[in-house]
Specification:
The chain is α/β, with parallel strands linked by helices. It is built from 19 helices and 30 strands. The protein is globular and about 70 Å long. The structure holds 5'-O-[(S)-butoxy(hydroxy)phosphoryl]adenosine.
């Protein structure tokens, strides 16, 4: 159990869709569709692929499982995301429709029509080419939440290169590891980014990371904060200077890609310290994200969509950048933090831009809820039609607050369970599904999910078990970059006999077959919805000279879901103090990033270990939570 909240308490609390919703929703036949898809998932995905996307060349086969678990989808098909997200819209009436509205932290506002975005992407694609980037090369993108970030992503995809976006909240070591693993010769960054009125020194961090990972040959730097940065001659180039050169021509051909070519890598945390680069494909991924967004949020031509995540996470890749553009929607993106500089910033933006669909994380909702009901009450939120949540289980209290104070009890709340690995929503309601606060409800059409015991048998209602996916879905990652064995080992070995994917989550299903996610079963901690591996934080701690050994656990927290508690054995001769605790926190911030900083550090003489030397974090956690310690038969004497 990794959350601070009892998500089962509200099981009898059911919210039926209103008549207004039932009468207006486009896919009112979703339940029949879902039933059909359960019988024949391939036809469902085939239809989505044909209806939602344009292919340069049609695929010959929908699904190929000849090399399990390296499944393929839409083989033989030729496609490019940018053709679907921009090129085709520019040739249609959508040319002058707004694709993106952006607001800076200081209130500056920018808008991009599809035509304008297309032009910027063409230009930057030419710039990347001039830097020597070719089809199949990787480009690391490390930026703040500015429009140039999606522009850089789209430009990379346009020329058939592979982007690896590293969230701008990560620091030196985390960035260096990711650049190194992806072997990116080109990095795109900003001088700095704005966060709560202060600047984050992105370029300095890049410089330090490159010192640790010397594969980088070129750095393109967007001027955002105007702060002083060090530009290395022949290596570092200003974005705006390159854009003024003839090389940055206004047109660049979009590269037709095989459906199974890699489209991007995105790193996420796992059990070991080495981050996993999940590789997503050019074909199946697009089908999955476009279909899920369309049905789950009942999207329409005149919607204003706000996915309040960062493009640096999978949520942003799929549902800020790619799916909304494929569907031709207008998106809103905000540079800053929620509640900055005042607690109604978000609600003011909903009103100002007429947001119709809002998708965010429980931790953000809890954070804004803290300020009280008066802040949203000041604003006209009547444009909102549907709300969404993602990242961790939502506690019923936050759910109800969101429902009453933001949705005014008229907006369905779409609780979407999915992962970096799955590419798009896996378990989610659509607006016609009755809701239970804290439950992600039912698997999406074409997704076969279950909760099972260790032997693979299905759990009884309300019995905790492993959350598995029984049939592959087009958007699921194809491999771990450079480490196919780890891909097989991590996701496909627990239920190898059955050929199922194991998510790493525990869950239960209730008597209505609704899914209730409990939390991670592995050494992954969700802090404010961010995913962190205990090993990453531990290796940052032991990289400090004062620390000999470290163990981290997640401890429930009302606001952030979980916080990290660290236990450190100090090197001989060093003694623990408050100032050392502060120094270690600063060290973790510098190495991994602010999100990884432990809430508390305890100095200890020993750590519970198995006889084979593995730290038993489970025991540390049971002690903190005052729970029974369970089976300790493998504990070292
Ligand atoms: C883990 C994946 C997928 C986008 C953001 C997170 C947890 C995610 C929910 C939800 C309960 C959720 C799971 C999952 N999670 N969505 N709606 N209800 N838990 O992606 O960083 O790869 O994390 O987030 O534990 O395994 P991610």
């Amino acid at each position: 159990m990794s959350t601070a909240f009892d998500t089962t308490a509200s099981k009898s609390e059911v919210y039926q869709p209103s008549r207004e919703i039932l009468e207006s929703v486009q896919a009112s036949d979703y339940l029949e569709l879902r039933e059909e898809a359960l019988q024949d998932p391939l036809s469902f995905w085939d239809r989505q692929a044909k209806e939602l996307l344009d292919w340069y060349e049609p695929y010959q086969q929908i699904f190929d499982d000849s090399n399990r678990p390296f499944f393929k989808w839409f083989t033989g098909g030729k496609i490019n995301v940018v053709h679907n997200a921009l090129d085709r819209h520019v040739k249609s009436w959508r040319k002058n429709k707004l694709a993106l509205i952006w607001e800076a932290e200081d209130g500056e506002q920018r808008t991009y029509s599809y035509f304008k975005l297309w032009k910027e992407v063409n230009r930057f694609a030419n710039i990347l080419k001039s830097m020597g980037v070719k089809k199949g090369d990787t480009v690391t993108i490390y930026m703040g939440r500015v429009p140039e970030m999606p522009i850089a992503m789209l430009a990379t995809a346009k020329i058939g290169a592979i982007h690896s976006v590293v969230y701008g909240g990560f620091s030196e070591q985390a960035l260096a590891d990711r650049i190194d693993d992806a072997k990116s010769k080109v990095v795109v960054t900003c001088d700095g980014s704005w966060l709560r009125g202060k600047t984050v020194n992105l370029k300095d961090i890049v410089d330090e990371a490159i010192a640790r990972s010397p594969v980088v040959q070129r750095v393109i730097v967007l001027k955002r904060t105007g702060q002083e940065v060090n530009m290395v001659p022949d290596r570092d180039f200003w974005w705006h200077e390159l854009a003024a050169l003839p090389i940055a021509g206004p047109y660049c051909e979009t590269e037709p890609m095989d459906a199974e070519d890699p489209m991007f890598i995105l790193y996420t945390s796992g059990t070991t310290g080495k981050p996993k680069g999940l590789m997503h494909s050019c074909g199946g991924y697009l089908v999955h994200i476009a279909a899920t967004l369309k049905y789950a949020f009942d999207t329409r031509e005149d919607d204003r969509w706000w996915c309040a995540a960062d493009p640096g996470w999978i949520t942003g890749h799929s549902y800020i950048v790619y799916a909304p553009l494929i569907l031709g929607l207008t998106s809103f993106m905000y540079e800053g933090a929620p509640g900055y500089p005042y607690p109604d910033r978000w609600w003011q933006q909903v009103e100002k831009y007429g947001i119709t669909l809002l998708y965010t994380a429980p931790t953000a909702i809890r954070g804004l809820m803290r300020f009280g009901d008066a802040w949203p009450a000041r604003h006209d939120l009547s444009s909102l039609r549907i709300l969404g949540t993602v990242g961790e289980p939502i506690n019923p209290e936050a759910w109800r607050w969101y429902n009453v104070n933001i949705g005014k009890e008229r907006c369905p709340i779409i609780d979407t369970w999915w992962q970096t690995e799955t590419g798009g929503f896996m378990i989610t309601p659509t607006p016609i599904i009755p809701l239970k606060p804290g439950s992600a409800t039912l698997p999406f059409a074409g997704v076969e999910a279950d909760v099972v015991r260790e032997d693979g048998s299905s759990c009884n209602p309300d019995e905790d078990g492993y959350l598995v996916i029984k049939h592959p879905v087009p958007g699921m990652a194809r491999t771990i970059w450079g480490d196919p064995d780890r891909f097989v080992q991590t996701y496909w070995s627990d239920f190898e006999k059955q050929g199922w994917y194991f998510s790493g989550d525990s869950a239960r299903k209730d008597e209505d077959n609704y899914f209730w996610i409990i939390g991670r079963m592995d050494d992954v901690i969700k802090v404010s919805g961010y995913r962190l591996g205990t090993a990453e934080v531990e290796s940052a701690l032991v990289s400090h000279h004062a620390v000999a050994e470290a163990a981290c656990i997640g401890v429930p927290d009302e606001l952030r879901g979980n916080v990290i508690r660290a236990y450190c054995i100090l090197t001989a001769g060093v003694s623990g103090s408050e100032s050392l605790e502060d120094e270690l926190k600063a060290h973790v911030r510098h190495e991994v990033g602010p999100i990884a900083v432990p809430a508390s550090i305890e100095f200890v003489d020993s750590l519970p270990k198995t006889r084979s030397g593995k730290i038993m974090r489970r025991l540390l956690k049971a002690k903190v939570l005052g729970q029974p310690v369970g089976d300790t038969s493998t504990l070292e004497a």
